[in-house]
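Example record

Each entry pairs one chain with its bound ligand, magnesium ion.
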Amino acid sequence: MGRIIAIANQKGGVGKTTTAINLSASLAERGQKVLVIDADPQGNTTSGLGYEKNELEYTLYDLMLGQCGVDDCTFENDFVDNLDIWPSNINLSGAEIELLGVENREYILREAVNQVREDYDFIIIDCPPSLNMLTVNAMATADTVLVPIQCEYYALEGLTQLMHTVNLVKERLNSDLEIEGVVFTMYDARTNLSLQVVDNVKENLNQNIYKTIIPRNVRLAEAPSYGIPITVYDPKSAGAESYRMLADEVLNRGDE
Ligand SMILES: Nc1ncnc2c1ncn2[C@@H]1O[C@H](COP(=O)(O)OP(=O)(O)OP(=O)(O)O)[C@@H](O)[C@H]1O
Ligand SMILES: [Mg+2]
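C-alpha coordinates for the complex follow.
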Protein backbone atom coordinates (compact mmCIF):
# COMPACT_ATOMS: atom_id res chain seq x y z
CA MET A 1 0.00 0.00 0.00
CA GLY A 2 1.38 3.40 -0.96
CA ARG A 3 2.95 5.72 1.55
CA ILE A 4 1.33 9.12 1.21
CA ILE A 5 3.46 12.17 1.93
CA ALA A 6 2.11 15.74 1.84
CA ILE A 7 4.77 18.39 1.25
CA ALA A 8 3.58 21.42 3.15
CA ASN A 9 4.69 24.78 4.48
CA GLN A 10 2.38 27.77 4.17
CA LYS A 11 5.41 29.98 3.63
CA GLY A 12 5.88 30.65 -0.08
CA GLY A 13 8.96 29.75 -2.08
CA VAL A 14 10.64 27.43 0.41
CA GLY A 15 11.14 24.55 -2.03
CA LYS A 16 7.92 22.53 -1.71
CA THR A 17 7.45 22.08 -5.43
CA THR A 18 11.14 21.51 -6.13
CA THR A 19 11.06 18.81 -3.47
CA ALA A 20 7.80 17.29 -4.74
CA ILE A 21 9.15 17.03 -8.28
CA ASN A 22 12.64 15.83 -7.49
CA LEU A 23 11.86 13.55 -4.57
CA SER A 24 9.18 11.90 -6.72
CA ALA A 25 11.56 11.53 -9.66
CA SER A 26 14.33 10.17 -7.42
CA LEU A 27 12.00 7.61 -5.83
CA ALA A 28 10.81 6.59 -9.30
CA GLU A 29 14.43 6.28 -10.42
CA ARG A 30 14.91 3.85 -7.52
CA GLY A 31 12.19 1.68 -9.03
CA GLN A 32 9.35 2.89 -6.81
CA LYS A 33 5.98 3.40 -8.46
CA VAL A 34 5.12 7.03 -7.71
CA LEU A 35 2.09 9.27 -8.10
CA VAL A 36 2.65 12.99 -7.61
CA ILE A 37 -0.44 15.08 -6.97
CA ASP A 38 -0.30 18.78 -7.71
CA ALA A 39 -2.63 20.30 -5.12
CA ASP A 40 -1.53 23.87 -5.84
CA PRO A 41 -3.50 26.04 -8.31
CA GLN A 42 -0.16 27.58 -9.36
CA GLY A 43 0.42 24.27 -11.16
CA ASN A 44 4.20 24.45 -10.80
CA THR A 45 4.64 20.72 -10.30
CA THR A 46 2.53 20.19 -13.40
CA SER A 47 4.57 22.51 -15.63
CA GLY A 48 7.83 21.47 -13.97
CA LEU A 49 7.18 17.92 -15.12
CA GLY A 50 6.59 18.98 -18.70
CA TYR A 51 2.82 19.44 -18.98
CA GLU A 52 1.15 22.39 -20.65
CA LYS A 53 -1.01 23.11 -17.67
CA ASN A 54 -3.60 25.11 -19.56
CA GLU A 55 -4.10 22.54 -22.27
CA LEU A 56 -5.09 19.60 -20.12
CA GLU A 57 -8.57 18.26 -20.62
CA TYR A 58 -8.87 17.06 -17.05
CA THR A 59 -7.08 18.09 -13.90
CA LEU A 60 -7.34 17.57 -10.16
CA TYR A 61 -10.03 20.24 -10.13
CA ASP A 62 -12.32 18.14 -12.33
CA LEU A 63 -11.60 15.09 -10.21
CA MET A 64 -12.39 16.90 -6.96
CA LEU A 65 -15.61 18.29 -8.38
CA GLY A 66 -16.71 14.90 -9.64
CA GLN A 67 -16.42 15.94 -13.28
CA CYS A 68 -14.01 13.15 -14.24
CA GLY A 69 -12.68 9.87 -12.92
CA VAL A 70 -9.19 9.08 -11.62
CA ASP A 71 -8.14 7.51 -14.92
CA ASP A 72 -9.09 10.66 -16.82
CA CYS A 73 -6.71 12.84 -14.82
CA THR A 74 -3.80 10.39 -14.40
CA PHE A 75 -0.93 11.16 -16.75
CA GLU A 76 2.20 9.04 -17.18
CA ASN A 77 5.34 11.09 -17.25
CA ASP A 78 7.17 11.12 -20.57
CA PHE A 79 10.64 11.50 -19.11
CA VAL A 80 10.60 9.38 -15.97
CA ASP A 81 9.45 5.77 -15.80
CA ASN A 82 7.24 4.80 -12.87
CA LEU A 83 6.02 8.37 -12.38
CA ASP A 84 2.40 9.45 -12.79
CA ILE A 85 0.80 12.80 -12.02
CA TRP A 86 -2.57 14.30 -11.22
CA PRO A 87 -1.96 17.76 -12.64
CA SER A 88 -3.45 21.14 -11.72
CA ASN A 89 -3.86 24.62 -13.01
CA ILE A 90 -5.50 27.84 -11.91
CA ASN A 91 -8.96 26.26 -12.11
CA LEU A 92 -8.19 24.60 -8.79
CA SER A 93 -8.31 27.99 -7.07
CA GLY A 94 -12.10 27.88 -7.52
CA ALA A 95 -12.46 24.55 -5.74
CA GLU A 96 -12.51 26.01 -2.25
CA ILE A 97 -15.57 28.12 -2.96
CA GLU A 98 -17.29 25.59 -5.17
CA LEU A 99 -16.97 22.90 -2.56
CA LEU A 100 -18.45 25.07 0.19
CA GLY A 101 -21.39 23.26 1.64
CA VAL A 102 -20.38 19.93 0.12
CA GLU A 103 -20.54 17.24 2.75
CA ASN A 104 -17.17 15.84 3.89
CA ARG A 105 -15.32 18.25 1.68
CA GLU A 106 -12.16 17.71 3.74
CA TYR A 107 -12.10 14.12 2.49
CA ILE A 108 -12.62 14.63 -1.24
CA LEU A 109 -8.98 14.07 -2.14
CA ARG A 110 -8.74 11.16 0.25
CA GLU A 111 -11.65 9.41 -1.41
CA ALA A 112 -10.03 9.79 -4.83
CA VAL A 113 -6.63 8.62 -3.57
CA ASN A 114 -8.17 5.58 -1.88
CA GLN A 115 -9.10 4.33 -5.33
CA VAL A 116 -5.46 4.16 -6.44
CA ARG A 117 -3.53 3.69 -3.23
CA GLU A 118 -2.78 0.05 -3.99
CA ASP A 119 -1.28 0.96 -7.36
CA TYR A 120 1.62 2.99 -5.97
CA ASP A 121 4.53 2.70 -3.56
CA PHE A 122 4.52 6.45 -2.91
CA ILE A 123 2.00 9.21 -3.36
CA ILE A 124 3.52 12.67 -3.00
CA ILE A 125 1.23 15.70 -2.66
CA ASP A 126 2.52 19.21 -3.38
CA CYS A 127 0.57 21.72 -1.26
CA PRO A 128 -0.09 25.41 -1.93
CA PRO A 129 1.53 28.09 0.24
CA SER A 130 -1.42 28.45 2.57
CA LEU A 131 -3.26 26.46 5.20
CA ASN A 132 -6.45 26.36 3.16
CA MET A 133 -8.94 23.67 2.25
CA LEU A 134 -6.59 22.15 -0.33
CA THR A 135 -3.84 21.77 2.25
CA VAL A 136 -6.37 20.34 4.71
CA ASN A 137 -7.49 17.86 2.04
CA ALA A 138 -3.85 16.89 1.47
CA MET A 139 -3.25 16.42 5.21
CA ALA A 140 -6.48 14.47 5.60
CA THR A 141 -5.18 12.13 2.89
CA ALA A 142 -1.56 11.80 3.94
CA ASP A 143 0.25 9.44 6.29
CA THR A 144 2.91 12.05 6.93
CA VAL A 145 3.78 15.68 6.33
CA LEU A 146 7.22 16.58 5.01
CA VAL A 147 8.16 20.19 5.73
CA PRO A 148 10.77 21.93 3.59
CA ILE A 149 12.49 24.76 5.43
CA GLN A 150 14.46 27.35 3.55
CA CYS A 151 17.77 28.24 5.13
CA GLU A 152 17.02 31.92 5.66
CA TYR A 153 16.56 34.23 8.57
CA TYR A 154 12.79 33.84 8.95
CA ALA A 155 12.86 30.06 8.66
CA LEU A 156 11.10 29.37 11.95
CA GLU A 157 8.35 31.89 11.38
CA GLY A 158 5.04 30.23 10.70
CA LEU A 159 6.15 26.79 11.79
CA THR A 160 4.05 27.03 14.95
CA GLN A 161 0.89 27.56 12.88
CA LEU A 162 1.89 24.73 10.58
CA MET A 163 2.37 22.31 13.48
CA HIS A 164 -0.91 23.53 14.97
CA THR A 165 -2.71 22.76 11.71
CA VAL A 166 -1.15 19.31 11.54
CA ASN A 167 -2.34 18.65 15.09
CA LEU A 168 -5.86 19.88 14.35
CA VAL A 169 -6.10 17.66 11.28
CA LYS A 170 -4.78 14.78 13.35
CA GLU A 171 -7.39 15.34 16.08
CA ARG A 172 -10.35 15.91 13.83
CA LEU A 173 -9.80 14.35 10.42
CA ASN A 174 -6.91 11.90 10.26
CA SER A 175 -5.76 10.35 13.52
CA ASP A 176 -2.89 8.54 11.75
CA LEU A 177 -1.21 11.73 10.53
CA GLU A 178 2.43 12.18 11.59
CA ILE A 179 5.22 14.60 10.76
CA GLU A 180 7.53 12.86 8.33
CA GLY A 181 10.28 15.32 9.03
CA VAL A 182 11.91 18.56 8.13
CA VAL A 183 14.23 19.01 5.19
CA PHE A 184 16.47 22.04 4.82
CA THR A 185 16.52 23.56 1.35
CA MET A 186 18.60 26.14 -0.51
CA TYR A 187 21.51 25.72 1.85
CA ASP A 188 24.36 28.02 0.98
CA ALA A 189 27.62 26.71 2.35
CA ARG A 190 29.29 30.08 1.73
CA THR A 191 27.22 31.88 4.32
CA ASN A 192 27.18 31.53 8.07
CA LEU A 193 23.48 32.25 7.97
CA SER A 194 22.56 28.88 6.48
CA LEU A 195 24.52 27.11 9.19
CA GLN A 196 22.94 29.25 11.92
CA VAL A 197 19.45 28.54 10.62
CA VAL A 198 20.07 24.80 10.62
CA ASP A 199 21.42 24.91 14.18
CA ASN A 200 18.59 27.16 15.34
CA VAL A 201 15.87 24.95 13.89
CA LYS A 202 17.52 21.85 15.32
CA GLU A 203 17.51 23.45 18.77
CA ASN A 204 13.95 24.73 18.61
CA LEU A 205 12.05 22.12 16.69
CA ASN A 206 11.44 18.76 18.21
CA GLN A 207 10.97 16.88 14.94
CA ASN A 208 12.73 14.41 12.70
CA ILE A 209 15.26 16.29 10.65
CA TYR A 210 16.61 14.71 7.50
CA LYS A 211 20.38 14.38 7.37
CA THR A 212 20.28 15.33 3.71
CA ILE A 213 20.42 19.08 3.25
CA ILE A 214 19.45 20.36 -0.18
CA PRO A 215 22.05 22.89 -1.37
CA ARG A 216 21.28 26.03 -3.28
CA ASN A 217 22.01 24.82 -6.80
CA VAL A 218 21.23 26.80 -9.92
CA ARG A 219 20.57 23.61 -11.90
CA LEU A 220 17.59 22.92 -9.61
CA ALA A 221 16.16 26.32 -10.48
CA GLU A 222 16.75 25.82 -14.20
CA ALA A 223 15.24 22.35 -14.61
CA PRO A 224 11.54 23.35 -14.37
CA SER A 225 11.82 25.63 -17.39
CA TYR A 226 12.70 22.52 -19.41
CA GLY A 227 9.83 20.55 -17.86
CA ILE A 228 12.10 17.84 -16.48
CA PRO A 229 13.30 16.88 -13.02
CA ILE A 230 16.90 17.45 -11.98
CA THR A 231 17.62 13.73 -12.24
CA VAL A 232 17.05 14.02 -16.00
CA TYR A 233 18.21 17.61 -16.59
CA ASP A 234 21.57 17.24 -14.87
CA PRO A 235 21.85 13.82 -13.23
CA LYS A 236 25.31 14.47 -11.81
CA SER A 237 24.61 17.91 -10.33
CA ALA A 238 24.79 18.53 -6.60
CA GLY A 239 21.02 19.11 -6.66
CA ALA A 240 20.33 15.71 -8.24
CA GLU A 241 22.66 13.95 -5.82
CA SER A 242 21.01 15.59 -2.84
CA TYR A 243 17.48 14.64 -3.88
CA ARG A 244 18.63 11.05 -4.47
CA MET A 245 20.05 11.01 -0.94
CA LEU A 246 16.79 12.39 0.41
CA ALA A 247 14.87 9.69 -1.48
CA ASP A 248 17.08 7.02 0.09
CA GLU A 249 16.46 8.45 3.54
CA VAL A 250 12.71 8.53 2.91
CA LEU A 251 12.88 4.92 1.70
CA ASN A 252 14.89 3.80 4.73
CA ARG A 253 12.64 5.61 7.17
CA GLY A 254 9.76 3.58 5.78
CA ASP A 255 11.62 0.40 6.71
CA GLU A 256 12.14 1.37 10.32
N1 LIG B 1 17.82 24.08 -3.82
C1 LIG B 1 17.53 25.08 -4.65
N2 LIG B 1 18.51 25.77 -5.27
C2 LIG B 1 18.22 26.80 -6.10
N3 LIG B 1 16.99 27.23 -6.36
C3 LIG B 1 15.97 26.59 -5.77
C4 LIG B 1 16.17 25.48 -4.89
N4 LIG B 1 14.96 25.06 -4.45
C5 LIG B 1 14.05 25.84 -5.04
N5 LIG B 1 14.64 26.78 -5.82
C6 LIG B 1 13.96 27.83 -6.58
O1 LIG B 1 13.33 28.68 -5.64
C7 LIG B 1 12.02 29.04 -6.10
C8 LIG B 1 10.97 28.55 -5.12
O2 LIG B 1 11.02 27.13 -5.07
P1 LIG B 1 9.71 26.25 -5.13
O3 LIG B 1 8.83 26.66 -6.24
O4 LIG B 1 10.11 24.83 -5.08
O5 LIG B 1 9.05 26.66 -3.75
P2 LIG B 1 7.56 26.45 -3.25
O6 LIG B 1 7.64 26.32 -1.77
O7 LIG B 1 6.91 25.35 -3.99
O8 LIG B 1 6.88 27.82 -3.68
P3 LIG B 1 5.31 28.17 -3.56
O9 LIG B 1 5.09 28.43 -2.12
O10 LIG B 1 5.12 29.38 -4.43
O11 LIG B 1 4.57 26.97 -4.06
C9 LIG B 1 11.89 28.44 -7.48
O12 LIG B 1 12.26 29.39 -8.43
C10 LIG B 1 12.87 27.29 -7.47
O13 LIG B 1 13.36 26.97 -8.75
MG1 LIG C 1 5.09 25.33 -5.01
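DSSP finds eleven helices and seven strands in the chain.
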